[in-house]
């Protein structure tokens, strides 16, 4: 039986220029290729979980412009429940301007648009589920309300603290799982470890670590793959970890599953187009005897 996951978060259209060196401040670079894909950390994580076999409900907000349908296309095609996604009249759909270097590293600037209209009241739309998953590309009161809604539903609450920004200490202390990369871990410091929940630290090519009260419980190395585009790798990891924990995998197996999904995602361009299916992740692990 499928696990159930509710995601409240951002929905963007990603405008991607890839293949040219990343520009420094004030610099112009030429020679890039252009592509556009659906994106946004919330939508990416929702779709990642869906492709890995979960029933997923997405709550978010798009504008009433021509970009909205493009931003929602893959969520709809893959069967994410988007009945709770609002369309805000007179507002622009969120857009991310993404530069991807020949080595697959990226720079992202987000024009949040309609994502800023997601409010605390919207969390009430989250239906019964095993896990509620949030990120920080929507206003913080909405994320706090998700924590309360998850508690009311008896669901696990996972917060991916990306991008890093101030959040109430109570949110950090009460989350069941916090997911951070190295930049976010530096930003929050010891505040991450004050609660009794799990903290998952992703370390890129160094793998991932799971801690509780500052004590390491599990660690997995990164998988060696040919990196094409790292955009959305963190989102893939978060969606996959939400699925793995909802399926009651052990901490180590959950980290391994999420790392495998993220490794597959970086081998293809774009965030959402690169999200792997469950069959691909299972085969990737089986090929390695895992
Ligand atoms: O994490 C990658 C995502 O960040 C992109 O899809 C972009 O939309 C930004 O939200």
Descriptive notes:
- By secondary structure, this protein is of the alpha/beta class.
- It has one domain (4-11, 39-93, 115-287): Ribokinase (UDP-N-acetylmuramoyl-L-alanine:D-glutamate ligase, 3-Layer(aba) Sandwich).
- Helix 1 crosses helix 6 (233-246), helix 6 packs antiparallel against helix 7 (251-265) and helix 7 crosses helix 8 (278-287).
- The strands form 2 sheets. It has a 9-stranded mixed sheet, sandwiched between helices. Strands 3-2-6-7 form a 4-stranded mixed sheet.
- Strand 12 and strand 13 (215-220) form a beta hairpin.
- It is built from 8 helices and 13 strands.
- It is globular.
- Residues 10, 12, 14, 39-41, 44, 96, 108, 110, 137, 231-232, 234-235, 271 line the site of alpha-D-ribofuranose.
What is the compact description of this entry?
By secondary structure, the chain is an alpha/beta fold. The chain has eight helices and 13 strands. Strands 5-4-1-8-9-10-11-12-13 form a nine-stranded mixed beta sheet, sandwiched between helices. The chain has a four-stranded mixed beta sheet with strand order 3-2-6-7.
Query: What is the number of domains?
Result: 1
Structural class of the helices, strands and pairings? alpha/beta
CATH architectural designation: 3-Layer(aba) Sandwich
Q: How many distinct helices?
A: 8
CATH topology: UDP-N-acetylmuramoyl-L-alanine:D-glutamate ligase
| Portion in strands | 25-35%
> Which quaternary structure do these chains form?
single chain
What's the average pLDDT? 97
Summarize the helix and strand pattern as letters: EEEHEHEEEEHEHEHEEEHHH
Q: Tell me the radius of gyration.
A: 18 Å
Distance between the termini: 22 Å
Provide the CATH top-level class: Alpha Beta
- Counting DSSP E segments of at least 2 residues, the number of strands comes to 13
What kind of sheet is the major sheet?
9 strands, mixed
The residue fraction in helices comes out at 25-40%
Broad shape: globular
Low-confidence stretches: none
Q: How is the largest sheet built, in terms of strand order? A: 5-4-1-8-9-10-11-12-13
Determine the CATH superfamily: Ribokinase
Bound molecules: alpha-D-ribofuranose
